[in-house]
Amino acid sequence: MAFKRVLFSKNVFVLLFGIFTRTSADGNIAALKTAEQSSDYFDYKWLAGAAVDGCETTNIESNCCTHTMTDGSPKTAWWRVDLGQMSSINTIQIIYRNEITKDKERTAGYQLYISNFTDSPTHGVLCYEERSITKDTVQLKITHRCPYVGRYITVYNYRNNPKRYEWYADDAILSLCEVKASGCPVGFHGDGDCSQACSDSCYGGNCHSNTGFCFRKFSNWKYGDTCGQDCSVNCKDRLCAKDTGYCTDCINGKYGDTCGQDCSVNCKDRLCAKDTGYCTDCINGKYGDTCPEDCSVNCKDRLCAKDTGFCTECVPGKYGNGCEHNCSVNCNDILCEKETAYCIDCVPGRYGSICNQKCSDNCKDRFCDKVTGNCTECTNGKHGDACDIDCPKNCKDNVCIRKTGHCYDCIIGKYDATCALTCPVTCKNFVCDQQTGQCLECYAGKYGVVCGADCLDTCTDSTCNKDDGHCISTADHKLIIIAVQAVIIGLLIAAFITTVICLLRIIQNRKKSSDNDKESSVPDPNYTSLSNEQEGAPHVYEMIVK
Fold first, then answer.
1. Does residue 496 sit within a domain?
2. Cα dihedral 181→183→184→190 (10° resolution)
3. Using CA atoms, how far apart are residues 6 and 177, in angstroms rounded to an integer?
4. Rg (CA), the chain
C-alpha cells in the first residue's frame, strides 16, 4: 500500500518553524514531523499528520485525530512518525480517540516500536504492547517509558484469527488523536530545549535527553553519569561498571568493589575472590577462607583441605581427619588408612582390620591372612584353614596338604590320598604306588600288578617280566649262547695262528734274500750245482710240522 504524507495548510507556518528547531517548547520531538499510516479513511481528513499537530481533542469530528480504513475487514493497521534524525527518546505518550464504545475494542492489543528503518512496521525494538484482559482496563491516554535511540516511532495493531480475546474488534483500526515523544536529537540534552551537548565520553554522543547522563561509555576505562571518571588501575584491563565504577574483575592480589584491598599473603599465587577476598586456594600448610589457619603437623607434607583443614594424607602412624589419632601398634610399619584406621598390613602373628587378633599357633612362622586369619602354611602334622586338624598318621614325615589334608607321601607299606590303605604283602619290600596300590617290584618268581602270579619253571632263576610274566632267560637259550661264544673264540684263535704264520714267512723270505745277495756279490766260478734245487735251511712252519 502506498504511503501518504499529509501537510495541513493551517499548520504550514508551524511546520516550517519546526524545521529550524530541535524540539517544541514542551520537549515533544514528534511535533509537526512527517507522519504516514497504512490507509486513510478519507483522502482529505483524519490523515496521519493529525496525530502530531499539537491538538489533543479526542473527538473525530474535530479533525484532530487520524483514522485508517474500515472497509475490506483489514487485519493490520499501522501509523508512523519520522523524527527527522536519530534521537534519544525518553517517553512516548499515546492519546487515542475516546468517543464511542468501539474505541477501546479497536485500540486493544496495539504495539509500539522504535526503529531506524521503515522496511517493516514491526522492524525495530518493541517498546510496549497493550495486553489488557478486559475492555474496561484499556487506557486510551497513556505514557510509556521508551529509553531507546531511533528515528521512527510506529504504532501497530493486528487481528489474528482467532482473536486474542472475544471482545476485541474484528478489524484492525487505528484512530490516534496525538502521539508525543519526549527526548532530544542524538548528541544533545536539556529539559525541554535540548540546548546542551552530551559529553564526549558518551558512546556515539548519546545521552539521556533530560539529565545528560551517558547511556553507554565511549571508553572502557571511564565511568560516571557523564563518563568523566577513570576506572581504578586495579581493575583488570581497566574495565568497570558505568554507573558505579565498580571493577568487572581485579588484577592479581586485589579484591573489593574497586579492587582497592589486598588478598591475603596466604592465598596461593595471591588469588582471591573479587567480592569477598576469600582465597581461591591456600599456600601449603594453611587453610580457611583467607587461609589464616595452620594445617596439622600430622598432615603429610602439611597439606590439608582449604575449607575444612582436613589432612589430605597422614604421616606414618596417624589417622583421622586431622591425623590426630595413632594407628594400632600391630599395624605393620604402624601404617593404617586415614579414614578408617584399618591397618594396611599386620605384623607377623596378627590379623583383622586393626590387627588385634592372633594367628593360630599352628600357622607356620605364625603367618596368616590379614582379613580371614587363615594360615598361609601349617606346622608339620596339621592342616585346614586354621591348621587345627591333624594330618593322617600314615603321612610320611607327618606332612600333608594344608587345604585337603592329603598326604604328600606315605610311609612304607601304605597308599591312598590319606595313606589309610595297606600295600599288598606280595610287593617287594612292601612298596606300592601311592595312588593305585600296585606293586612297584616283585620278588623273584612272581609277577602281576600285585605280584600274585608265578613265573614259568623254564625261566632262569624263576625270573620273569613283572608286567606280562615273560621269562627274562631259559636253559636252551644258555646253551645257544655258550655255543655261539665257542665259535667266536675258535675263529679268533684261527685268525691268530694265521697271522703268526704269515709273519714267519715274511721273516724267512727276507733271510733268503739276504744270503742270495751275499753269494752273488762273490761268485765262485768253479761252483757247479748238483741238482736244479738248491738246499736251504728248513722253514719254520716245516719245522713245526715235523
1. no
2. 140
3. 15
4. 65
Range of the domain at 459: 423-476
Alpha-carbon span 312 to 310, nearest angstrom: 6
- Determine contact, residues 113/124, Cβ cutoff 8 Å: yes
Return the HEC string of 221-243. CEECCCCCEECCCCEHHHCECCC
Q: Number of folded domains in the chain? A: 2
User: What is the per-residue pLDDT for 337?
Assistant: 94
Please, what sign has the CA dihedral across residues 26, 28, 31, 33? positive
Residue type at position 32:
L
Which residue type is seen at 206? N
Q: Each residue of 170-189: pLDDT tens digit?
A: 999 999 999 999 999 998 99
Residue 404 counted as domain residue: no
Determine whether 326 is exposed, middle or buried from the number of CB atoms within 10 Å of its CB (0-12, 13-18, 19+): middle
Alpha-carbon distance of 376 to 386, in angstroms, equals: 9
The pairs formed by 279-287 with CB atoms below 8 angstroms and a separation of 24 or more are 279/306, 281/306, 282/306
**342-374 pLDDT, tens digit each:** 999 999 999 999 999 999 999 999 999 999 999
Report the Cα 197 to chain-centroid distance in Å.
59
Pick left, alpha or beta for residue 416 (phi over 0 → left; psi -120 to 50 → alpha; otherwise beta). left
The pLDDT value given to residue 483: 66
Three cell numbers, residue 421:
590303605
162 cis-preceded (ω within 30 degrees of 0): yes
Could you tell me the CATH number of the domain that includes residue 18? 2.60.120.260
In this prediction, residue 513 has a pLDDT band, given cuts at 50, 70 and 90, of low
Mark which of 159, 186, 213 sits at the end of a domain.
Answer: 186
For 90-106, write each residue's pLDDT tens digit: 999 999 999 998 999 99
- Set of cell numbers at residue 419: 595313606
Q: Give the three cell numbers for residue 533.
A: 734245487
Are 247 and 240 within 8 A, CB to CB?
yes
Spatial distance between the Cα atoms of 397 and 408, rounded to a whole number of angstroms: 9
The model's pLDDT over 306-356, given as tens digits with 9 standing for 90+, comes to: 999 999 999 999 999 999 999 999 999 999 999 999 999 999 999 999 999
What is the distance between the alpha carbons of residues 463 and 449, in angstroms, rounded to a whole number? 16
